[in-house]
Design brief:
Elements lengths: L1 H4 L4 E10 L4 E5 L8 E6 L2 E14 L3 H67 L5 H35 L22 H11 L1 H22 L4 E11 L8 E10 L7 H67 L5 H35 L9
Helix pairs in contact: 2-3, 2-5, 2-7, 4-6, 5-6, 6-7
Length: 380
């Protein structure tokens, strides 16, 4: 990485061709002659070349802290990627469940329409025989029209859910979709265990912890710049000059750069980075508290949806039996048309309650896995 490269040798090369107006020369005044003598020491045009290699020997921790800061930056970037991945998976799951929910809603609406159509057939037969008043016929026709209206709305709702699901996956909005049904499998989960798992696994916490550590190392890196920067350096220089011998020369040296005073510039920069690190640490503590609350709410919501599902599932058979008995009683003149319509509405409500409870429970389980960052693991 760039931070690690700061501790490695630095090699520089330079080359140039230069043309001057005159040759440089020394003016010499001999003791025995009043006439000065000139002695050239630099030719008018020349080529020069140089090479330099510098190796840091001591940086006061500047390089080490830079490497640590870069490493924590990589951890932060990976944690952010993991956060976006978890969010994306949950959003796709939401769209998936929305399609299943809309598909089941269409099934309920279609069954409701078919049942009311069958009931209207019974009412028409009884009306022709003079055993049912016209009011029953009209009420059955209106109820069937309402059921057809609900079916149209359910079909469009399913199309909209499929389009949203396809958009989430980057496919054409009208691409055909065939999804496997989902089943809710209750799992015994311990709230405290889930909370500790979330605090250990959530990438958002890892991101903030890495950011705070990186800023802390940046602060120390800034302070280290005030310390002596000791280096070893090897140089080679060549200049084309017929008046010079040798034309190329090499040297090795050990040197130091030391900023004795910058009037607080470095210290203020280090303090600013340290304060930012503390601010991120406060965000970490706040997020940890928020995650505890998220896990508790998700756990409570899962328990609520599980209990709702148990109640709704137990009522399905009763709702079907109620419709069957009420329609039989109506055919035998022991129940009214209103009783049949109420029984059908009650059945629709029961199935809708079951579907909503089922998919709410599935989503609650998925959300609990999201807030604990255990998407691919069982919750036990």
């Amino acid at each position: 990485s760039a931070a690690q490269a700061e501790g490695r040798p630095l090699v520089k090369l330079n080359a140039a061709y230069e043309l001057r107006t005159d040759e440089l020369a020394y003016r010499i005044l001999p003791p025995a002659s009043p006439v000065p003598v000139t002695q050239p020491f630099m030719q008018r045009e020349f080529f020069d070349f140089g090479a330099q290699m510098r190796v840091p020997l001591y940086t006061g921790g500047r390089v080490a802290h830079g490497v640590e800061a870069a490493a924590h930056g990589e951890v932060s970037a990976e944690a952010q990627r993991e956060t976006r991945w978890l969010d994306l998976r949950y959003r796709v799951a939401e769209e998936y469940v929305a399609v299943l929910r809309a598909r089941d809603e269409q099934t309920v609406a279609r069954t409701y329409r078919d049942n009311l159509a069958a009931h209207l057939h019974d009412v028409e037969a009884l009306y022709r025989e003079g055993k049912a008043p016209k009011n029953d016929l009209l009420a059955a026709q209106v109820a069937l029209a309402d059921a057809r209206h609900s079916l149209v709305a359910a079909r469009h709702g399913l199309d909209a859910a499929i389009a949203a699901f396809n958009r989430r996956l980057g496919r054409p909005l009208d691409a055909p979709v065939s999804l496997e049904p989902l089943h809710f499998r209750p799992e015994k989960v311990d709230l405290e265990e889930l909370t500790q798992r979330a605090l250990a696994m959530r990438p958002e916490l890892a991101d903030l912890a890495a950011q705070a550590a990186a800023l802390c190392h940046r602060s120390e890196q800034a302070r280290a710049a005030r310390k002596p920067q000791i280096y070893a350096e090897g140089v080679y220089g060549f200049r084309e000059n017929r008046y010079q011998d040798p034309q190329g020369i090499a040297a090795v040296r050990v040197g130091a750069d030391w900023t004795m005073a910058d009037f607080g510039r470095t210290e203020h920069q280090a303090e600013e980075l340290a304060w930012k690190s503390q601010a991120v640490q406060h965000q970490f503590d706040h997020l940890a508290s928020t995650i505890r609350l998220q896990v508790r709410r998700a756990w409570l919501h899962l328990d609520e949806t599980r209990r709702r599902l148990e109640v709704a599932e137990a009522a399905l058979e009763q709702a079907d039996e109620n419709v069957r008995v009420t329609r039989s009683r109506y055919r035998n003149g022991l129940a009214t048309n209103t009783d049949v319509l109420k029984a059908e509405l009650l059945r629709v409500r029961t199935y809708r309650n079951y579907n909503h409870s089922l998919y709410d429970a599935i989503l609650a389980m998925m959300w609990l896995k999201r807030v604990t960052a255990t998407w691919d693991e069982p919750l036990q």
